[in-house]
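Sanity check

After download, print the first record. It should look like this:
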Amino acid sequence: MKLLRASDHKRMPWKNGGGETVEIAVSPDGVGLADFDWRVSMATVATDGPFSVFPGIDRTLSILDGEGMTLFIEGRAPERLTQASEPLPFAADAPTSATLIDGTITDLNVMTRRGSFTHSVRRVSVDGTVQLAPRGGVSLILCHRGHAKTARLSLSAGDCLLLEAVWTDIAVSGKAELFQIDIHPNGRR
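Expected structure tokens:
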């Protein structure tokens, strides 16, 4: 179990140069945009435009702040994505562009290398205590709003708990909005 503090997240330019990403975690550690197995990041999007293309990558996008955006993913009907929407999975190598609904947004972006890893993303509201159930692989618990704590660690907005090969439930208490991200080697869930 490792706590990744918001103040330690790495800032870097988008692959297409159109903005900035805050990298929360990447595997293997320290790799670049072409070589990761999986990556979790946040980005501020201030203008309409194309997404960076990542060949062989699957992605899930969630809106953290702002009114949201409409995504135009090649081969699919337009998707309106807001803070109330479920996280949206799609192929990161499909040409994609976005139109903002009403101003700047911040999104959560989870990416895994297709054929090697799979991932899932879900929102979790905490008002008291909840049990989270990571099941092996890598799980990340991102505190989006509020404060949460486990038996040993406290999380504030932007902090992320990284769990590896955990098979027991984790009790999380407080008042917070979290995202649980589970990443598994291909073929294991």
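If your output differs, re-run the checksum step. Summary of this record's structure: The mean pLDDT is 91.
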